[in-house]
Amino acid sequence: MKRSKISLSKLFRNDKFLIVFAFVVSCILWFVFSQNSDEETTTVVPDIPINIELSQEAIDNGYEIFSKSAETASVRISGNKITVGTINPDDILVSAQMGLVDAPNSYSTLQLTARQNSNKTNYTILSVDPSIVNVYVDKRRSVDFKIRDDVNYNYTVDSTYYAGTPSYSVDTITVSGPETEVQKIDTVAIIGELSGELQSTTQFQADVVLYDQYGEAINSDLITVSTKSVEVTITVLPEKEVPIKPTFTNVPSGIDVDSIVTVEPSSIIVAGPQTSLTTLPEINLPEIDFSDINPTEDNDFSLEIDLPSDCRNISNQSTAKVTIDLSGYSTTSITVSDFTFRNVADGTNVSATTTDLEVLVAGPQDYIANLTGDDITATIDLRSMGTDFEGSTEIPVTITFDNEYCWAYGDYSINVNVTKTSNSASSG
């Protein structure tokens, strides 16, 4: 007949067994402690933070402690075995009192003392290790430095691509720490290397290095920097030559602007994403209004070259010069006294209180020589006045010509009087 084996795992899953087991263990522990509760023992409590106390005057003057020769101490204690066994670093305060502080300095041989720091008092402090500590005291200073780029750039790009100048995740580095140490810093640089052929925009991390005035690297645990590395970006984009095109408004229908206009530069090199370059067949300059062109004056226009936001002007020419050659063109002044009204509301009467309008006409000399007022139409559109307006006002005049080569230089307007009538007025 086989005996069934007792499994410990099964026993510890049995609730009744666990209750009995816990009771027995408690009794044993009570017996042990009761027999040893008065026994004295000695032990060492490690890793107790060292607290250095500056005077209020030193704190008010901006001084602070930047380093200590030791951050923690060990304290040897004796006492009741049970009490001593419960003492932890929070129950003991280790400190040293600073004397007069009136200048940045290293203060040595500060005596460390330890005292009880909780309601656990049934023990005696025997010694502190270390017994003395050295500290460095100074004022804090922060300085912003412009980055100096000391990266070794050794890369190449295809001739059909553009590589931009390096850009940085930050342009300045903030250095802070003891004033005496920060004053030694002359330059903050980034170092690293980028090599190989680049076919797309590339980012890499460059390390931050501090240098003194002699070019020697500064390594100090007391100095902190706002970032230990900087992300450097080299933008690599395809490029394309794109023509520049002038645009005009109010051009007489008989004038071919392409025959009288030149642009400098006529094209520029543009870099950008391929999708943007594909949809950029030309660059249109801001419009030039022919009513602003006087043939007897200088007709050179300097206009901004605008690109899509994701493209770059590699030619570095931000403006284009548009020159209009109006040789053989001139101006003459003609009086217009006949006006045509449009969009006159029903029940409204309109009359011009301006009887004569002097118009400066521009065009080829042989065309304007025989031009008269009968060849000019002056139109006043009342649509913008609405149907309820009544009274006198000034309204712009649109000047048109029977001759398709002439235009009016400048802007014109006349005064009109608008009244309501009982009879309907027909619209012009």
Number of helices: 7
CATH A-level architecture of the largest domain: Beta Complex
CATH superfamily of the largest domain, please? YbbR-like domain
Write down the domain tally.
Answer: 5
- Secondary-structure-based class equals mainly beta
Strand content: over 45%
- The residue fraction in helices comes out at 10-25%
Number of strands: 32
List the helices and strands and how they pair.
Elements: H1 8-11, H2 15-36, E1 40-53, H3 56-60, E2 63-68, E3 72-80, H4 81-84, E4 92-97, E5 105-111, E6 113-116, E7 123-129, E8 132-149, E9 152-157, E10 161-163, E11 167-168, E12 172-178, H5 179-182, E13 187-191, E14 193-198, E15 202-211, E16 224-225, E17 229-234, E18 236-249, E19 261-264, E20 267-271, H6 274-278, E21 283-289, E22 300-304, E23 312-313, E24 319-324, E25 329-336, E26 339-342, E27 348-352, E28 357-364, H7 365-368, E29 376-381, E30 391-401, E31 407-408, E32 412-420
Parallel strand pairs: 1-4, 8-13, 9-14, 18-21, 26-29
Antiparallel strand pairs: 1-3, 2-8, 3-7, 4-6, 5-8, 8-12, 10-18, 11-17, 12-16, 13-15, 15-17, 18-20, 19-24, 20-23, 22-24, 25-28, 27-32, 28-31, 29-30, 30-32
